[in-house]
User: Fold this.
Amino acid sequence: MTEHPWWRQAVVYQVYPRSFADSDGDGVGDLTGVRQHLGHIRDLGVDAVWLSPVYRSPMADAGYDISDYQDIDPTFGSLEDMDALLAEAHRLGLRVLMDFVPNHTSDQHAWFRESRSSRDNPKRDWYIWRDEPNNWRAALNAGSAWTWDEQTEQYYLHLFLPQQPDLNWRNPDVVEAMHDVLRFWLDRGVDGFRIDVAHCVGKDPEFADDQRCAAGEPLSDFNDQPYSHEVLRGIRKLVDSYPGDRVLVGEVNIRSTRRVAKYYGANDELHMSFNFPPLDAPWDPVVFRMCVREVEKELGTVAAWPTWVLSNHDNERHRTRYGGSMRRTRAAAVMLLTLRGTPFLYQGEELGLANAVITPESQVDPGGRDGARAPLPWLAAPPHGWDGKTPWLPFPPDAETLSAQRANDEPGSILQLYRRLISERRRSEALRVGDWTELPSPPEVLAYRRRAGDDTRIVAINFADHPQQFEVDGRWQVTIASEPDGEGEPFTGRLGAEQAVLLEPSR
Ligand code: GLC
Assistant:
């Protein structure tokens, strides 16, 4: 069996720092808040934390618009707070990935201020300036991807908000400056990066109009240029020159698993890439069967290690996507943590949170993504551990019953289910790195076997809202069931409504 680096065997937990925990009572989460609640993450049993951006930022896009890559925004704390967080995480055996945003800076970044100051400024070419716009569209409801600059009378490119001008990675000075950013954090001890919109950095050198943009789609939904791969190879080389198996996981936000597979290169680009079709998928056995088969076919053949994600800060939480059903959300946890690949959890899914209800008055994000970004309810009683100013977004529904405090005390809570599944992964090589084979099953059941050496596990997920019979050869017992009936007993073949089970051979 080949050697499996830590990140293949890991479960990663995404922290969205604005909404994780607030230590200073200003209503916005911060790094000290994260540090103080690392115990929750450690007790969950995960291996690594990915922190959404905490760099200096005017917050036009909640920190994805960076004005200084080598400093922490005062909203979140200071460099010292970051060092303290890193040290404490490492002490607890947790690795830390930072969010690296290579495609664009903030329009307040010193580089862009220089670039826009005059046409002959040495940094003019660090960004993408043109006399004429093409038809490219920006994401986040921002309309054209080009904004006119009055002073220098040219347009600059931004695949996201006008406050997020795109860097020109064809300029070697940009490459060097951004590599310096990576070194800065690697030298401080971070264990890797999640690379924001990794597929966007290379642009079509012809700047050709695109039909999909004409139809209203933003370019960032499908941009897929060879030059992005060259940029990623450069970054990979740099990261690989550091000891300690640092890792790169890229956000390749293209809804095609086949194209996503290309971003692993010849094991010289991303170590792992997000693959988002399952993140869009409704609670539907046909859709999930397709998603999983696609991954096995497209990534399996090129030996690219898969990732699994059901929720993140850009999309509706999966509980909401599954019609609000806790039963489905529990069954999905069994699936997420037993498929072949590295699962990425989004803070709060271990509490079974649904999207917060956002009124027009409480809306912050121009992209309409606030619902998934609500603050985590730590304590049952309001203000749920967020003392001080009212948090920047409203709490999710049922904050009291779903609070971490309640979930901790309640033996059957979804939090306990996540903990047990993660701890079972730790015990089972088959679940961590074993191969994956689909098993024959009724159409509304997805069933598969995981195997490594003589460790074998079977998983069956019943998507139907009524019981199903699933026959499997041999004698099996139920290790974990999303709905408790049958747990710890011999498996009879009966799956309850929307119940998922993890089986091991009977002894
Ligand atoms: C990624 C981030 C998203 C951000 C965008 C622009 O998709 O996840 O939050 O708005 O990139 O940086």
The chain has a mean pLDDT of 97.
